[in-house]
Amino acid sequence: MSLEQAKQVAAYRAVDEFVTNNCIFGVGSGSTVVYAVQRLAERVETENLKVTCIPTSFQAKQLIVKFNLTLGELDTSPELDVTIDGADEVDAGMTLIKGGGGCLLQEKIVASCSKKLVVIADYTKDSKKLGDSYKKGIPIEVVPMAYVPIKNKIVAMFGGEIKLRSAVAKAGPVVTDNGNFILDWIFKNQDLDWDKVNTAVKIIPGVVETGLFVNMCHKAFFGQPEGVVIER
Ligand code: 5RP
After folding, report:
1. Of 104, 163, 170, 187, which is the most exposed, with the fewest CB atoms less than 10 Å away?
2. Which residue's alpha carbon is at the smallest distance from atom 5 of ligand 1?
3. Rg from Cα positions in the chain
4. pLDDT for 174-185, tens place per residue?
5. SS3 state at 131
6. pTM, two decimal places
7. Are the beta carbons of 1 and 222 closer than 8 angstroms?
8. Ligand 1 neighbours (beta carbon < 6 A)
9. CA 99–ligand 1 middle distance (angstroms)
10. Where do the DSSP E strands lie in 100-166?
């Protein structure tokens, strides 16, 4: 079974377990979420479900429109029943690294408005400690003018190294849906207290959000190479 099939089985399982009629549903971002939206569209069609979809990115919004689902927004639906989203890594304590696709700010906002955040992923994202499998570091969304001082402050506090994200080598920086830059922090110490790190980084002026999701994830589904799904 391919990695894509592993993503698909996890996504289908999560949508079947968590999406109910009349629910307000947060649509995460990334390649695994595409399968969740595909399954949701099938269920809306065959079961005549009414589901309002709140996007976590421009990509998610386009997906909702493409599959003819009902597009909502936080202004009119500020309380969601469930958000289903991907992750770059999930540790044994259910702390997540998110933001590989640069959508962490809206993903965290929508997750924070949801009764449940459910993660869907292939088996490579299931780790004991953050950094075991995901080597690109923790994404941090920052106001462009402050990226150098923020970088220096984080390295001074916690070590490691930080790269300003660019789409292609030697090209300009990636700009998020919110007009900000992304720093990728390659941490060296895997035994940090991620809750404290998240709080310490977030209070640096100019930091908009971190890709550390601590105590937010209700359940994770990991598609396995043999086609089964492990739930945690
Ligand atoms: C985007 C994200 C994604 O959910 C994360 O990068 C996982 O993506 P994929 O499902 O493509 O592996 O956080 O900001």
Report:
1. 170
2. 87
3. 17
4. 999 999 999 999
5. coil
6. 0.96
7. no
8. 28-32, 85-88, 98-104, 107
9. 6
10. 114-122, 138-142, 161-164
Calculate mean pLDDT across residues 170-198: 95
- Please give the single-letter amino acid code of residue 231: E
Determine the distance separating the centroid of ligand 1 and the alpha carbon of 118, expressed in angstroms.
Answer: 13
135/117 Cα distance (integer angstroms): 24
Written as six digits, the tokens of 12 are 């289908």
Amino acid letter, residue 31:
S
Strand ranges inside the chain, DSSP E: 23-27, 51-55, 70-71, 80-85, 89-90, 96-97, 114-122, 138-142, 161-164, 181-186, 207-210, 212-213, 217-223, 229-231
Tokens 């949801």 belong to 114
3-state secondary structure string across 65-117 = HHCCCEECCCCCCCCEEEEEECCCEECCCCCEECCCCCCHHHHHHHHHCEEEE
